[in-house]
Write a structure and sequence with these properties.
326 residues, two-stranded antiparallel sheet, 8 helices, 34% helix, elongated, alpha+beta, 14 strands
Amino acid sequence: MELRKISSHFFLLSVLIPLAFGNLNAPVINPDILTQSKNLGDCQACKLFVESFKRGLDRTSRGKYEGGDAAWEEEKLKKSYKRSEMRLIDIQDGVCKEEKKHSVQCHHMAEKAEEFIEEWWAQDADESADLFTYICIDKMRVCCPEHHYGKHCTPCRSDLNNICNGNGKCRGDGTRKGNGTCLCDPGYTGTNCESCDTGYYLSYKDDNKMLCSMCHRSCLGGCRQGTQKDCAACKPGYTFDSDEGCLDINECDDLNKCTKDQFCVNSLGSYACITCDKSCQGCHGDGPDMCRKCAKGYSKKGEFCIADREDEDQSEKLTTTRKEEL
């Protein structure tokens, strides 16, 4: 075990010493290692390590020996390997290698858990036993059982059989953090996520479940159902019609909505002013064929405003070609 630690320290020195002395041939450090995500908590890192260790158990479960003069000899060798230090080293050498995004956190947790893994290994416990509970909850104390939170793994402040009415999650659930209150999903609110949030309406409810759906995009301040006729009020950019409900206002009906070198594009609840093509002096759409007038240096050719110099270049090209032919 100490040999692995010495090797890792030697690796770090082999990278850092050349950098300190300005060695131009110093190795290039993987930027992904230096920019690891910092959002992975201790509990998640422990889960990551345990899952990686369990994959190592599966990988080495068939033993290292495939030969033998007799069936009993092969079985004896496999049995001796099953709980040997050799197998443990094989597993630990492969731990976290498959991790890319959170490899640093995984390796860090593996180092912290090494003592407890060795204790568990020495007990010759059933490999199907809950290693996560043993390492992350009981020994490392970085996680809690499901639907428990905080330093003392207190039960979440909700019905444990129906956390947050199925419309949210307990803050800190399964970790040593949080406060056990409900963090509601979008569209839900209340102590136990038992109500629809502003901008949503109750679209389904029975004894076990409720469903909140989003109001129509034109609604302001809530709605009764999901159409534009059900809005409590209309958002800016919409007008209320007694028959149709909230209808989009076409701001582009106002010819002065944009500047002279722009054209107006309407959208639901809004509009945009877009600059005309450079060949235009005023326009009613995008492109050199949508000009009201041609800009200085451009002339109308059919439906398009074409740069005058393009005609000159074309004439010069034709003249040059005729001279070469002569």
